[in-house]
Design a protein that fits this description.
DNA-binding, 3-stranded antiparallel β-sheet, homodimer, mainly alpha, 3 strands, 174 residues
Chain lengths: 174, 174
DNA sequence: TACTTTGTTTAGTTGTTACTAAACGAACAG
DNA sequence: CTGTTCGTTTAGTAACAACTAAACAAAGTA
């Protein structure tokens, strides 16, 4: 039980906390934490051993992490095992996360707001006071989502620019 | 069952979806949706009627919404009831949400990453290859979190500037 | 063919969370 | 003080999500 192992363990615990803060299973954070601190790719069995989770849990969580681009699976010649390693470039991960977000329920819900607005504007009684109010409100919300989307796209573009650029650009905002 | 009511209902459903996408109870989204489409502040009982939830659920969800700054309670003279109205300025809401985020588990976990780094750098065997690797990795993560924080603060500052400024600033990023 | 070694899927368990129903408390009215 | 009208809190419930254990599938090896 070296001090180093202690530090690692503490780090993994912190990653678990961050993970469930984002609404993800804490196992996801633990797996990423272990991989992130490993110089070598790890096999599924090594992850079982180092996280204390079972094969099943590792299997599903690892898939989620790969879908987000936070880890990658690597194959070794003449070895049937899958190995996994953490993506060290977080901006690359951000891009794939935001890209995946395009096809999910959130954008679907956002689309339904736009649909609501269209229906309202097509309404015959569009001159009634309450109707005007509704249109104004829903349009404001739609604009807000559009702004969020713009911001999201801008952030997604930062991956190729590196950290310095981010900080430089953000200073402009101050 | 007018067409207008239909449209409203559809909107509220969409808000519920967005709500649970962000990891919040769907009741939160429903309540906000109803309030957002109401020109007048609504009482707790009116919310019970329009959302189908019970008083208890409304009571707790309304508190969460108020804490996030998404709605406000208003008092009427000579009326003991509490009335609630939606905050129409979303940038104002964003600021209070990000402000509240300062004191939660996320920053606590982020702090533990910084702590990990300090421990590693204080280690005696800091010249060993694996130790160097660990320090490098943890420092990269800490820097990434710092960039996120900077971005978050920048966004929080946008509330006083309005939508046009946001879009203007974001164009710089392109 | 049978036997291993891998990863995935399924069934069942546990723990968590949002909700309902009802008790409670506070504040006013008579 | 009694009764009423609010909002909150609590106890219990139902739904859900993450995990374990074990069956399964796939693909190589002897």
């Amino acid at each position: 039980m070296s001090e180093l192992e202690d530090i690692k363990q503490n780090f993994v615990t912190g990653m678990s906390g961050i993970s469930q803060f984002w609404g993800l299973p804490k196992g996801v954070g633990a797996i990423f934490g272990v991989l992130y601190l490993s110089p070598e790719p790890l096999s599924l069995d090594e992850l079982v051993q180092q996280t204390g989770l079972t094969k099943g849990a590792i299997s599903t969580n690892v898939r989620a992490l790969a879908r987000m681009g936070l880890i990658h699976s690597v194959q070794r010649l003449g070895d049937r095992k899958d190995y996994y390693q953490a993506e060290a470039d977080f901006y690359k991960s951000i891009r794939s996360i935001l890209k995946e977000r395009q096809n999910n329920e959130f954008n679907q819900a956002v689309a339904s707001v736009a649909e609501t607005l269209e229906k309202l504007e097509a309404g015959a009684e569009a001159s009634e006071p309450e109707h005007v109010f509704l249109i104004e409100r829903v349009r404001a919300l739609k604009d807000f989502f559009a702004a969020l989307d713009t911001l999201s796209n801008a952030v997604a573009r930062l991956d190729s620019l590196g950290l310095n650029t981010v900080q430089t650009v953000l200073k402009i905002l101050k």
